Amino acid sequence: MTTLSCSASDLVPLLGGVTNATAAAAYICGQFSSVSTRFSDTTYAIDSTYLLFSAYLVFAMQLGFAMLCAGSVRAKNTMNIMLTNVLDAAAGGIFYYLFGFAFAFGGPSNGFIGKHFFGLRDIPEPGFDYSYFLYQWAFAIAAAGITSGSIAERTQFVAYLIYSAFLTGLVYPVVSHWFWSSDGWASPTRTHNLLFDSGVIDFAGSGVVHLVGGIAGLLGALIEGPRIGRFDHSGRSVALRGHSASLVVLGTFLLWFGWYGFNPGSFLQIAKSYGDGSTYYGQWSAIGRTAVTTTLAGSTAALTTLFGKRLLVGHWNVTDVCNGLLGGFAAITSGCSVVEPWAAIVCGFVASGVLIGCNKLAEKFKYDDPLEAAQLHGGCGTWGIIFTALFAKKKYVNEVYPGRPGRPYGLFMGGGGKLLAAHIIQIIVIVGWVGVTMGLLFWLLHKFHLLRISAEDETAGMDLTRHGGFAYVYHDDENGDLSQKNVFMMRKVEPTSVTPPNDNQNLPI
Known about the structure:
This protein has helices at 8-11, 21-72, 78-105, 130-150, 157-180, 206-224, 245-262, 283-313, 318-332, 341-364, 373-391, 394-400, 418-447, 455-460, 462-466, 484-490. The protein has one domain (44-235, 243-269, 291-467): Ammonium transporter AmtB like domains (Ammonium transporter fold), CATH 1.10.3430.10. The chain is globular. It is mostly helical.
């Protein structure tokens, strides 16, 4: 931050023959310094307030994830999925505080992992304040929330606790250190030895957040296998529809709202001029542009998915549109700050095709993901990384990542292929790191029978067998508890029956 300065020795000659010129100069400079200090304090306060507000928006995405997940599973597992979303935030808060933030941003350190600020020791300091920790924690638990959707409806509760702590405490922080810390080996803010003279431009985390969460969810779902009844004896896909489209839409809008903290908030500060002599254009303008590109990518992906699925399946499906919208957001997250608004439309259009294609592949290979999380965040996140390397604009790259003239930018914008090479490396190392760490963890949980619930529990539903009752209470007995007998009587079946109804029924099963 540029500071104002005043020197009494320089001011004395300008006062001429004024009596006590030296004292007058000292007084004037003292007042000037007070104003400068107050101006500096105000700027820090504005930037900190902006970052905190952005952190609150990103944290609100947890509510969006909870509603989206709840609506996308069957009613008999609603309480389970809601509880896992709460614990993603709670467990992530503790482990990111103890280890994760230090591993991610604890510099000075090596290019692989941070080594300072464990338990927020020595915070605040000139580079970091508490608001920065809160913002980064909200990102970490977002990655954990992505993973929980992929393994919903058949995972033991203890497995959620273990993987959430491991992901937020080690796996995700190491990746964020690589690409977001100034010490990271592939960071674009590194002062020397930049990867392909560029580093990776993953501004808000198509790779760091979405691809990490998507790959972790993919591995967990593959090791667990599909839900009972997801594929019939001949291998054909059977739809196990979520019980509430209303919750899906509510969750989608909450995520949309939170994305304005996720992407524009990643600038970290708003009161910054670009020094081009303009009084109306600065980082505040770039933040506005980033919000626009985010909006256009998501909107385009939603509309493209709407008409694409209409042609493929013959009807309009609101859940598909919601997933398409989120796929567009996941894709634009990497390059939102360095591309033109028209390029964001291209991003959203292709993201929709990527999502539809990934879902077709998942069905072909009998992969079961209740929320399409791996396809949406992993597939569209990967496209977002490539998209940024193709469409990043030179002017915006130099504004967002200043101090290095001649930095490579988008291939299609005339910037050569170095940025694309760096981004391909990013995809490879994220898949490799998450594959080894999370794959090993899920395999060990499976080996020790800590991953998947029993077939009986899965058929009856985890709300009843693991959480003491259904999320939706239709009838209370005299003690105020859910009467299982009356629930079955309402559905006109025998109390001893636990056979699931068809997919169009919305009562708890």
